[in-house]
Specification:
heterodimer, A: mainly alpha, MetI-like fold, B: MetI-like fold, two-stranded antiparallel ribbon, flat
Chain lengths: 242, 248
């Protein structure tokens, strides 16, 4: 390897002389936290949608409070809240009930997944709620008339149709989430934005490395968009088009 | 250290409230610049000329496809690096124009570009949604292309996309918080500063959260009012009780 990089592109070499491997690790970490955060967010969204549609006033209020708060507070602040306040509250709790003797460190991965899942759970709550409401009432009544119990109704009737209605919104949230995952670089998670930042700070090639970072995110977005188109087409197979 | 409401109210909140004007300044300036810049972007995007729509398409994709954080870093550090190497009349540019050292202008620039991309796409949809008959009517009146755009297409498009714009404005307010990452001391930046100084986590972060919730609440009200004001003709006629009408 050339010890003195002559062009900026040699800075992207894979290995010790360049930052190619750092960026690759960043991309993988970004995708990991995005996928895990999205799964957590989807589960929270299902819970939230269930709470809002259950009919109980207090459950509705709890769900409404959750979505309103998350929508009103900047994502960066929410991530900091989940990370700092969550860590400290958990520590106080664990020490308080005597499970742990000293404070534990939460890994950036767990913190990133928890905060992204918490944020996107709120957005997915409203998307899933709208999708469940879009299912014709008669279908659920028919399922009830067949004697299906609630879990089976959900599994056979509600869930498959809900997914089809929810896919465009869920796709948008996936795109937003991959971009918002850059914010967890502020709590020290080694994802793409963090890779770009550390490479830029070490070499002083700010313009170059941030452009590379932006390009990586752009590629993730474009690939996601193409995949989402396929998913959308597959989810609405068997549906008559006008 | 447990949550101390007295510390929050006495020490944290006054400083955070003092930082609100800067957050609102970022919101208003980048909102105005970004939304004005969105008009040519949207017009170029709907143009049949590939020399116009292709650059607009790429710009929108770039702004919507990359995180705002990276855009802010790219503009603040990247552009700052370029400016640092330039000279103006023999003097370093940064010394000739000292405001170029202020991170706030870079944040405004980045937020404006981002808004132009997002709003450009929204406005494009709205321009396409303007009823064709209205544009034909304008043509029948002998209006020029520019006059049709100014009097019919643009006002109609703005009213069509107004509900989306109000959510977009709230997203922009939340986006101004990202300016804190490049040393702009708006509400979140100030909260982070106090947190670093005092190691108080709950008070600073919860305080900032309260400030943003209140700001978003006020902004939502304001946008609803604006929507009603601009769509006065669509309001249902208020039925006035007969007794009131009969009065002299």
């Amino acid at each position: 390897m050339d010890p003195q990089p002559t062009t900026v592109w040699s800075l992207m070499a894979y290995g010790d002389t360049g930052y190619g491997d750092e960026f690759l690790r960043g991309v993988i970490f970004t995708l990991q936290i995005s996928v895990c955060g999205y799964i957590l967010g989807f589960l929270l969204g299902l819970l939230g949608a269930g709470a809002k549609l259950h009919g109980n006033r207090w459950l509705y209020r709890a769900g409404d409070l959750y979505t309103t708060f998350v929508r009103a507070i900047p994502e960066l602040l929410l991530i900091l809240m989940v990370y700092y306040m969550g860590t400290r509250a958990l520590n106080s709790l664990l020490i308080g009930i005597g499970i742990a003797n000293e404070s534990i460190e939460i890994s950036p991965f767990v913190a990133a997944v928890a905060s992204l899942g918490f944020i996107y759970g709120a957005y997915l709550t409203d998307i899933l709620r709208g999708a469940i409401q879009a299912i014709p009432k008669g279908q659920i009544e028919a399922a009830r008339a067949y004697g299906m119990h609630a879990p089976m109704r959900f599994r056979r009737i509600i869930f498959p149709q809900m997914i089809r209605y929810a896919i465009p919104g869920m796709g948008n949230q996936w795109l937003n989430m991959t971009k918002d995952s850059s914010l967890v670089s502020t709590i020290g998670a080694f994802e793409l934005a963090f890779a770009a930042k550390s490479a830029a700070a070490q070499t002083k090639h700010y313009l170059f490395f941030y452009s590379v970072g932006a390009l990586c995110f752009l590629i993730i977005t474009i690939v996601s968009m193409l995949l989402l188109q396929q998913v959308e087409r597959r989810a609405s197979r068997g549906v008559r088009r006008a | 250290m447990l949550f101390d409401p007295v510390f929050m109210l006495q020490e944290v909140m006054p400083k955070l409230i003092a930082a609100i004007p800067l957050s609102l300044f970022l919101l208003v300036v980048s909102g105005v610049i970004g939304n004005l810049a969105a008009v040519p972007v949207a017009v170029a995007r709907v143009s049949p000329n590939p020399l116009l729509w292709m650059p607009a398409y790429c710009f929108i994709l770039l702004m919507r496809g990359t995180p705002l954080l990276i855009q802010i870093y790219l503009i603040y550090y990247g552009l700052g690096q370029v400016f640092a190497d330039l000279t103006l009349f023999g003097k370093p540019l940064m010394r000739a124009l000292p405001f170029l050292r202020d991170a706030m202008y870079y944040a405004i620039f980045a937020l404006s570009l981002n808004t132009a991309g997002y709003t450009g796409e929204i406005l494009r949809g709205a321009i396409l949604a303007v009823p064709h008959g209205e544009i034909e009517a304008g043509r029948a009146f002998g209006m020029s292309k520019w006059l049709i755009f100014r009097r019919i297409t643009l006002p109609r498009a703005i009213r069509i996309c107004l509900p989306t714009m109000s959510t977009e404005t709230i997203l922009l307010l939340k986006a101004t918080a990202l300016a804190s990452t490049v040393t702009v001391y708006e509400v979140l930046g100030m909260a982070q500063y106090i947190r670093a100084q005092t190691f108080r986590i709950y008070e600073t972060l919860i305080g900032a959260g309260i400030v943003y919730i209140v700001l978003v609440f006020i902004l939502t009200r304001l946008m609803n009012w604006l929507e009603r004001y601009l769509n006065k003709d669509r309001e249902r006629p208020v039925s006035i009780p007969l007794a009131q009408v009969a009065k002299p």
